[in-house]
From TrEMBL:
It comes from Kitasatospora indigofera. This is GmrSD restriction endonucleases C-terminal domain-containing protein. It comes from the Bacteria. InterPro entries: GmrSD_C. Residues 9-86 form the GmrSD restriction endonucleases C-terminal domain. PANTHER family: AMP-DEPENDENT SYNTHETASE_LIGASE DOMAIN-CONTAINING PROTEIN-RELATED, SECRETED PROTEIN.
């Protein structure tokens, strides 16, 4: 599947694109139900600064994070990219399917 637009940050998105991203029900990895405590501890941190407290969920979290970024054509800053690569190196090498949202 071809990417329709180059990776960018969401700062250039329209209000409709931001709303579509925030309410994305097109991929089960986009919206994950968590406890209020977990949501408060994460806030707006990326994987360079926050990982789930359940060690057995870290690989799933990083895979889901990367899939959502890819789905929406979002970039990763250098710290985030380094953290994702470092963590993923210790995870199983599974094929991942991505349906592009934009």
């Amino acid at each position: 599947m071809e990417r329709r637009s180059p990776p960018v940050g969401a700062s250039s998105w329209s209000a409709a694109e931001r709303q579509a991203y925030a309410n994305d029900l097109g991929d089960d990895r986009s919206l994950i139900a968590v406890t209020a405590k977990s949501n408060r501890s994460k806030t707006d941190k990326d994987p360079a600064d926050w990982l789930p407290p359940a060690d057995d969920y870290v690989c799933t979290y990083v895979t889901d994070w990367t899939t959502v970024k890819t789905r929406w054509g979002l970039t990763a800053d250098p710290r985030e990219k380094d953290a994702l690569q470092r963590i993923a190196a210790g995870c199983p090498n599974n094929d991942i399917a991505v349906a592009f949202a934009r």
